[in-house]
Amino acid sequence: MNQNLVVTSACSNEAEGLRIARELVERGLAACVQIVPGIRSVYRWQGKIEDATESLVIVKTNSAKFELLKRTIELLHSYEVPEILALPVAAGSEKYLGWMEEVLGA
């Protein structure tokens, strides 16, 4: 069964987020991508605590598109280990979910 998903990925900056967002939408892998600039991330990387300003992309897609979407993000992303987290959509506006289905062709 095809499941609607929200996928998140933190990018090094807004320009990278926009480049990834446009590619995902153009390839039909995402119905919509929102870019939230100026998030602050604190994380452990290579034994050190890092503190970075990033941009978060929030991708609306479905499970049928996820594997290709994941590979596309990995290809375009500047990070060695990019964040790619898929969260299932439990419920939503029927009109919005219908629009997603129409745009994604699922």
Question: Mind explaining what this structure looks like?
Answer:
With 106 residues, the chain is of the alpha+beta class. Helices cover 36% and strands 39% of the residues. The chain has three helices and four strands, in the order βαββαβα. The protein has helices at 14-26, 63-76, 94-104, and strands at residues 4-11, 32-45, 48-62, 85-88. Strands 2-3-1-4 form a four-stranded antiparallel beta sheet. Strand 2 (32-45) and strand 3 (48-62) form a beta hairpin. The longest helix is centred in the middle third of the chain and has 14 residues, at 63-76. The model has no long low-confidence stretch (mean pLDDT 97).
Describe the protein's topology.
Elements (H helix, E strand, L loop, with lengths): L3 E8 L2 H13 L5 E14 L2 E15 H14 L8 E4 L5 H11 L2
Antiparallel strand pairs: 1-3, 1-4, 2-3
Overview in brief:
Helix content is 36%, strand content 39%.
Helix % is 25-40%
How many structural domains can be distinguished in the coordinates?
Answer: 1
End-to-end Cα distance: 11 Å
- Average pLDDT number: 97
Question: What is CATH's topology name?
Answer: Alpha-Beta Plaits
The total strand number stands at 4
What's the CATH architecture name? 2-Layer Sandwich
Radius of gyration: 14 Å
State the secondary-structure class. Answer: alpha+beta
Form type: elongated
Strand order of the largest sheet: 2-3-1-4
The main β sheet shows up as:
4 strands, antiparallel
How many helices? Answer: 3
What's the helix-strand series?
EHEEHEH
